[in-house]
Each structure stands twice: as C-alpha cells, then as structure tokens.
Amino acid sequence: MAIWKKEKSLEDIQKWNANTAAERLGIEFTEIGEDWLSARMPVDSRTVQPFGILHGGASVLLAETVGSCAANLCVEEEKAYCVGLDINANHLRPASHGWVTGTARPYHLGRTTHVWEIRIADEDGHLVCISRLTMAVVPRRSARAEG
Q1: Strand order, beta sheet including 99-109
Q2: Model confidence over 58-79: pLDDT tens digits?
Q3: Active-site residue among 11, 23, 64, 117?
Q4: Is 77 known to be catalytic?
C-alpha cells in the first residue's frame, strides 16, 4: 500500500524545486515507488570539492531535497507541510564522476514528525552516503485563524 497522500508525477515534484539550490545543482527526480522516492545529482563542477570528489554538503543537499519532497507527499497539503528539523550524514566512499542517486524511505511517519533514511549510491550501486532526516510536520493555519 502506497504511503503517499497525494498523487504527483515526477514532473510535478521537479517543479517544486524550480529556482532553488536543488535546481542549481542539477537534481532530477527519477523514480517513485509505493514507499520511496529517488532523485539523482551530477558529480560535476557544481557538486565537487577541491579534490575533485563529491562535496559532502552537496550530498546533504540531495538527501534533504529528496527526503523533504517525500515527506511532503505524505501529508495532506491543505492541512500541513513538512520542514527539515535535523539531518545527519555519513560519507562512506568518494564519487568523482557521473551521477549519484538518493533514495528516501521512511522509518517513522508520525503526526508531528517524520524520520527518513536517504541512501546515496553511485552509478555502480556503491553506497556513497547514508543520511537520516527528521522532518517537522507543521499544521497550516487557516485564513480565518490568521485574520
């Protein structure tokens, strides 16, 4: 059974990231499953550090982007939205070319928080980074309550 509260195409999800850091780094959403979302990011001059390998900060940006989008698909958008509360990342091996793909899967989908695991792998399937993202589920205020 799918965990998503709304059906969005990959194109719809990609549009969420127009004019953002994710777009500037070339992040592209690639697949969506019953309980996971994947996006890829190029390993190029935008995303490497001075030694020519993937910058840890770029990996974290990919992890938070895919995890945040996944979390927001799991709430009723008229009632709530999700924002990052905490993220950590372990950088396990370098990547120096091609693409890396981040796949987000939930550990916990609660009423006020979500916890997501994001695994980032290179084109050969080697695990480059593993991240845990905690999201706060924030209630939307109605127009009446704001007035």
Answers
A1: 28-32, 37-42, 99-109, 113-122, 127-139, 80-91
A2: 999 999 999 999 999 999 999 9
A3: 64
A4: no
